[in-house]
């Protein structure tokens, strides 16, 4: 059940982050899920420094938020690598 929640939360947070970073047209559903899941790991890692972090085992708003923030960070780094600037 944890993997299903991870895929759903990853898809939602990856999709939201791609809309914020103006990359929605270039990414499909699969890449939204991948970015969201990797972003969740990044968000939990960064959140650990500030004393908060969500869990991906069950749905929570804090988990969705940290996943979203991590996905935005990931897409920002990818923008820097691909284009040499943040959009």
TrEMBL record:
Q: Name one Pfam family in it.
A: Transgly_assoc
Q: Name one GO cellular component term.
A: plasma membrane
Listed transmembrane segments: 6-22, 29-53, 59-81
Highest taxon, organism lineage: Bacteria
Q: Does the keyword Nucleotide-binding apply?
A: no
Main localization of the protein described in the UniProt heading: membrane
Q: Does the keyword Membrane apply?
A: yes
Provide the protein's localization: Cell membrane
Mode of membrane association: Multi-pass membrane protein
This chain belongs to the protein called GlsB/YeaQ/YmgE family stress response membrane protein
* UniProt source species: Alterisphingorhabdus coralli
